[in-house]
User: What shape does this take?
Amino acid sequence: MAKKKRRKKFKVLTLLFQTFFIVAFMACVAVAMAIYAKYGQKVLSLYADAQTIVEGSSEDDFKTSETSLVYDAKGDLLKTLKGERDTYYLDSGSIPEDVKNAFVAIEDKKFYQHNGIDVRRIAGALVANVRGGGISQGGSTITQQLVKLTYLDYTDQSYERKIKEAFISVGIEKKYSKDELLEYYINDINFANGYYGIQAAANGYFRKSASSLTLSQIAFLCAIPNSPEEFNPYSNKDNTLMRRDLILKAMLKDGYITKDQYDDAVTEEIKLKKKKKVKVNSVDSFVMDCATKSLMKVRGFDFQYSFDSDVEKDLYNSEYNEIYNQCQASLYTNGYRIYTSIDPAKQKLLQATVDEKMAPFTETYGDEEKVYDMQATATCIDNSTGRVVAIVGGRSQKLEGYTLNRAFQSYRQPGSSIKPVIIYTPALEMGYTPDTIVVDKQLKDKDAPKNSSGGYRGKMKLRNAVEASLNTVAWQVYKDVTPERGIQYLLNMHYNKIASTDYVMATAVGGFTYGTNTLEQASAYCTIANEGKYREPTCIVTITDANGEVIVSDEQEETEIYKKNAALMMVDILKGVLVRGTAAGNALSNRMPCAGKTGTTDDMKDGWFCGFTKYYTTCVWVGCDNPKRVANLYGATYPLSIWKPFMEEIHKDLEPLDWEAYQNKKSTKDYKKKDKDDDAVITTPKDNHEDDVDDVDVDEPIDVVDPEEPDTPSEPTVTEVPAVPEEPKNDTPSEPAEPVEQPAE
Assistant: This one.
């Protein structure tokens, strides 16, 4: 009886198991069918694409490094950008065995066993990515890395790209031998600082051939390609050494080296040679920077200019550096045709003008190469396009290696040249007009500026305060605008070095944490000249591939920064600077309407002139690389002495062209005195203050000088450059800017 019950129970369990199995099987089939319905066609399409690539592949795919060509505005060749991979290519027999073993030990232990993909590594990476909520860990084999470098967009982290990569990897494993694939890989990977392949890296970092490297040097170099930025030997040598030791440990564990070899290698001191200097002039560096950023945009990189926290900024900077380096490297290998707006005649003229006016200053600094300390930079923008036609990053010198382009890579305090950008044009949007009555008087605010002359002129029109560059008026108006609103205009025009510490009143007179440069300032003044509309100040017109397919189009985005009428009022005010103000007597000839603004920092360390016509905007900065006082340096001396002859020459055959008149509106911001004689305030008046203007002759030059320009003559002579001044005391020495643009601060 008991036996019968057991048989019956067994039958029931068997039936339940069979039922469960059938249900589970049907569920799996249903899931599989659902997955296929959703992804099947896509996967099949990716497989077909992969097969096409494999069938069309050849050995040349892994050795190609095509020259990119850069053209100026006239269509003439400006520069060639050529990689050097072929020059240093090594066949498999010439690659040291330790190099091969190092990469296999650290990158792909099962390289000689798998068929192109390592399923266990992929599964482990997949689990890690699912846990992390995204693709953060890779399971790529050496073959997959080679495929990614050669055939795919290595910045694409989608699963579709991963699947296609796997299909191609399996395919080329059938077409090429393991030795061939490892040869291609070792010659193709990036060893940082422009070195591709082990031979280039050996020569660049140690000045020797790959065959002459020690085991320790080999492991050190093989540490770099995993993350060229993180393991850059020049900037992160400690990281590179740590990974060297990890590689040596892996080689020891896998039996590629002995314990004695390991002990000798980990204790060997790594002595790097200085990076070879490649001659790159200031125009080249600007073109390359613009082209790199244009490619970043095409790839979808979102440029950012303000941050909520240091963590956010650090994450952004890390991503920026990685993508920037990738896109810049592609300029040397992808065979681009880069068409620019650089005008060779204007470029030559601007450089010659800078060199001529700076010639009396011969003091230098530096140990290996002597660089002129007194420098000038200038940027000229075509107002009709918003593109740069000439850019000078410093004085001409026969220097080897990289030429720092201070026009976009160095940042200096702008002095009063910033006022129209963050104070007065914004104020004109708020109800001020050129005829608004303001007051020049001593202020009681803590840290408020004073007039160096010791005198104050009282009530006057806003236009006259701007012409005289009165800091007391700028301070009061800025209080009404507020630093928060004023700084936002800079961010909207992509000023790159705005810090959280800049949201203070000191920026009213140019007191920034880092400052700005002539590229940013020229772009801002061009925006005012262009009726308030901003365009990115690039020199790139278009970029195509070698076959003429457009990669970067010539379309421009235009953003309204200022209201049109506010911009037209600012233009009208700035015209007076060259007639009655701090640059009086320096308007262009031939009745060419022009406008501009001077700027000088405390102790005469930086001088600026930013001026424009309807045709062109040119901004000039003059100062020392190591900031210090320079005798007679004001916005209206050296900077204006460069600006005026250059602008005269490029306008000599152009018809005078003026802006349309602004709409004259009644001011809602006239000065109204408080009951007590304290700080001036701006309020909506109850009565008309026109009679008050009689106290100041607004048609005559105002004999009040910007405290930042303490002794500027009312009509400075700009055609003669004074003799070399005595060497001033360097009271605030600093290192000159590094020749690498940093991401946003």
